[in-house]
Amino acid sequence: MNTSTDSGSSTDRERAEAQEPTGFSALLSTSAAALRQLGVVLVRAEYRKGELCIRVFGDRRGALTGSVAVLICTEIDQHLSMILRRRYPAHFEGDGSWSVFEWNLLTDTLKHEHTRVHHGL
């Protein structure tokens, strides 16, 4: 039997940390746990002209540096690139494509916007 009590004082962050991952965090459980531990609440990944830029936003409890940062960014890139290739197979072949992913670690949701600029007629 599962029971829970909510005093109403827990924050969204505490609820997110206590839940089993069911959204995008389920695919990146180790990275998600490390990011949450560092106080990260939002990851924004932008693909433009074949380049990737990942930014993280949080309350600055820790620093994401060194080999841990490389591993987390690599894992995020691999999964987001796979999603991008499935949705837009020619994205990495042409210029003018732009994609932005926002991964909210509090709500465990992934938002994706994609724009394709066509040159000429």
Outline: elongated
> Distance N terminus to C terminus?
63 Å
What fraction of the residues are assigned to beta strands by DSSP? 25-35%
How many distinct domains? 1
What is the multimeric organization of the chains shown? single chain
Q: Would you report the number of β strands? A: 4
Q: What level of helicity do the residues show?
A: 25-40%
Main traits of this protein?
single chain, 121 residues, alpha+beta, four-stranded antiparallel β-sheet, 31% helix, elongated, disordered N terminus
What's the layout of helices and strands?
Blueprint: H1 12-18, H2 29-37, E1 40-48, E2 51-58, H3 66-87, E3 97-104, E4 109-116
Antiparallel strand pairs: 1-2, 1-3, 3-4
Characterise the protein shown here:
Strand 3 and strand 4 form a beta hairpin. With 121 residues, the chain is an alpha+beta fold. The protein has helices spanning 12-18, 29-37, 66-87, and strands spanning 40-48, 51-58, 97-104, 109-116. The chain has a 4-stranded antiparallel sheet. It has one domain. The longest helix is centred in the middle third of the chain and has 22 residues, at 66-87. It is elongated and about 50 Å long. The chain has 3 helices and 4 strands, in the order ααββαββ.
Quick recap:
By secondary structure, the protein is of the alpha+beta class.
